[in-house]
């Protein structure tokens, strides 16, 4: 395995990623006992950093890991990592696990020091062809647990969901629970029907994406006004437009689901408008004071 010579951070020290190791007794390794964030960075400016750190704090609280840092310390760590990379557009991966404990025991240990890992990858926005032509997706029953609102590193359900679309040479798996849309394996999902933008409300059945929130803000500002309510599988399959959103994929149109075209099988007009608003927002409309802590 080739690991690039990039500077990463583990438990108080910056060092090349390839040199960093954690103990095999780390509960992240043994139990998937930890949480993470993926923060996009454009031109060395973290996008919505405060919101990512807020979601991190909420995930940590939900799994009963004491937050190892306050917001100012997290921001400083992220900014230092950004400064140490040779490229400006970055994807910052930030992970906190419960740390190492012996003996192995499901019970949460009374004392364990969380393991904090951060590293950066170059961030490449989706290729123009994907933006212009859209992507294929497959649908499946959501195989995950009841706390999908926590951004946990326990991702086997998401991994197996994604495997279904990999098998079909598609870009994403759209999941349904009890006949209702939940989300994608690593994205949130929006539908457009008769000019209305529909998406499920945040709940334990999905992760509230930072991009999801941005798209809702942009829709409220520029239209179409979003309708936040349960979305049925039938509504997804008969949508005029279907989108996925995430920090790395931004907004992409899903133009077929299980091989059946969505709308006319091409990215729709409302998608194209929203994509434009999102790019403008990225380029300069970030709220003052937000892009830098
Ligand atoms: N995943 N839902 C799930 C299950 C996700 O994994 C993600 C993002 C989202 C969108 O969240 P955001 O807009 O904050 O990126 C929704 C990231 C990109 C990842 O796992 O790397």
Automatic annotation (TrEMBL):
GO biological process: amino acid biosynthetic process; carboxylic acid biosynthetic process
Pfam families hit by this protein: Aminotran_4
Record keywords, A-Z: Aminotransferase, Pyridoxal phosphate, Transferase
InterPro entries: Aminotrans_IV, Aminotransferase-like, BCAT-like_C, BCAT-like_N, Class-IV_PLP-Dep_Aminotrnsfr
Molecular function terms, GO-annotated: transaminase activity
Organism: Chitiniphilus eburneus
Family listed: Belongs to the class-IV pyridoxal-phosphate-dependent aminotransferase family.
Name used for this protein in its record: D-amino acid aminotransferase
Cofactor annotation: pyridoxal 5'-phosphate
One GO CC term, this protein: cytosol
């Amino acid at each position: 395995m080739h690991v690039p010579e990039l500077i990463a951070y583990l438990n108080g020290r910056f060092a090349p990623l390839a040199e960093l190791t954690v103990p095999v007794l780390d509960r992240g390794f043994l139990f998937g006992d930890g949480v993470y964030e993926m923060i996009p960075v454009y031109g060395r400016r973290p996008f919505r950093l405060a919101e990512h750190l807020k979601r991190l704090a909420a995930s940590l609280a939900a799994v009963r890991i004491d937050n190892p840092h306050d917001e100012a310390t997290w921001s400083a760590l992220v900014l230092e990592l950004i400064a140490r990379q040779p490229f400006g557009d970055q994807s910052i991966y930030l992970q906190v696990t419960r740390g190492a404990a012996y003996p192995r025991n499901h019970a949460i240990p009374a004392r364990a020091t969380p393991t904090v890992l951060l590293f950066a990858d170059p961030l490449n926005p989706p290729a123009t062809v994907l933006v212009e032509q859209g992507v294929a997706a497959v649908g499946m029953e959501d195989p995950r647990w009841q706390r999908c609102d926590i951004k946990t590193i326990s991702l086997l359900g998401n991994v197996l969901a994604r495997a279904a679309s990999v098998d079909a040479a598609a870009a994403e798996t759209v999941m349904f629970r009890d006949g209702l849309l939940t989300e994608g394996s690593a994205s949130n999902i929006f539908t457009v029907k008769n000019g209305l933008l529909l998406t499920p409300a945040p709940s334990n059945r999905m992760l509230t994406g930072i991009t999801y929130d941005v798209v809702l803000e942009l829709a409220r500002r520029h239209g179409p006004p979003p309708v936040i309510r349960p979305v049925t599988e039938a509504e997804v399959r008969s949508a005029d437009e279907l989108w996925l959103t995430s920090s790395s994929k931004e907004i992409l149109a899903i133009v077929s689901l299980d091989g059946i075209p969505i709308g006319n099988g091409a990215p729709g007009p409302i998608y194209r408008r929203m994509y434009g608003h999102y790019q403008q927002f990225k380029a300069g409309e970030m709220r003052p004071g937000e892009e830098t802590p």
